[in-house]
Amino acid sequence: MTDKQSVVPATFPLGEAGPSQDEIDELKEKHGKVKACFAANSIYLIRMMSRDEFVDFQNEINERLMAGDSDFDVDLQIADSYTIWPDKIDWSKEPGGSVTIVAQEVSRFSGFIQDRESVEL
Questions:
Q1: What is the mean pLDDT of residues 32-40?
Q2: Which of 1, 3, 73, 116 is 20 to 30 A distant from 96 in Cα terms?
Q3: Domain count of the chain?
Q4: Which CATH number covers residue 31?
């Protein structure tokens, strides 16, 4: 019997700069739904933030503020925690707006930002 990978060539549905379909499938198996986020010609795969993770994150922020620590970047923590591809990212070397865009997309994907909150009838 022939190995699947030797018969079927690797596919890259997001282009050569993105993950392979095999990588995407592995990430979906591990994290559930994933989305591709595009910022400044870069591709990032993100996962959803659960309600429990959100509550824990809010508590952590509150504890830090109560302790007098206000030297942190909420967007950076979200982008770093919920970007699952590439595996390791040095955000200081990424385009300036990438962190903000990725954090917003994680929030939107997780249901914290709605595309439409209401419509006029």
A1: 94
A2: 116
A3: 1
A4: 3.30.2220
